[in-house]
Amino acid sequence: MSSSKNLTLHSALVVRSPFDATLLDIYRQSHGDIDITWTPTTVLMKNIASGLTGDVVIVTDQAMDELIELGVVDAASRKPLIVSRIGFAVKQGDTRPDVSTPEALKKTLLETRSVCYSIGGASGIHFKTVLTRLGIEAEVDAKASPIPEGFTAEKLITGEASLAVQQISELLVVSGIEIAGRLPEELQKVTSFSIALFSASPLKNEGAALIDIVTAQASKEAYARFGLDCRF
């Protein structure tokens, strides 16, 4: 059950930028406050398996399929939300490296001082497979600055990394950074996310209102500003 009278949202990090920028305020103006936990899908799924509950959840399509099969979420409430792509960022003012082709990316990763990726995030898990495909996993990991979860671009600000990789919308959560480019299409992983109500939610009306707001046609611009493609 929800831990308070406020609506509880458990969400993958991918939509944090558009939600924080405008979409959550639209909900708050009409329905009150909302308690939010931002967590990578992989970590969120482990938490749900350990008994975590709430009102609304946003995870990858594959994870949502699992939650529906388990009866954790209400299948009828599920709506497709966004598609996300993985990209790279540098600290604002730094030279943007060439990541436009697999060959250019390989050269950049070998030359960069340190790259930060999220071990628990879908982007970081995929990035490890990219390193393997490029044949440079050992070399890059020897100087990498991985994090368990959270926003990789924060390591650009602290100076611990010179290049950050993550979903583009997640990179843009951190101010003082610039997008250097996307993973080349040959290496890209396009991830689809959905939103739904927890089956045991006591606040289904409020939860449905949030889902309606974040999947409204008027909300598309908010996602587009942060490099996300809508699926509604």
Share in helix: 25-40%
Give, in order, the helices and strands.
Answer: EHEHEHEEHEHHHEHEEHHE
β-strand percent reads 15-25%
**Cα-atom radius of gyration:** 18 Å
Number of domains: 2
Distance between the termini: 29 Å
Low-confidence stretches: none
**Spatial sequence of strands, sheet with the most strands:** 2-1-3-9-4-10
Named CATH topology of the largest domain = D-Maltodextrin-Binding Protein, domain 2
Determine the structural class based on helices, strands and strand pairing.
alpha/beta
Give the full name of the CATH homologous superfamily of the largest domain: Periplasmic binding protein-like II
- Mean pLDDT score, rounded? 96
The major beta sheet can be summarized as: 6 strands, mixed
**What is the CATH architecture assignment of the largest domain?**
3-Layer(aba) Sandwich
Task: Tell how many strands the DSSP assignment holds.
Answer: 10
| Count of discrete alpha- or pi-helical segments spanning 4 or more residues | 10
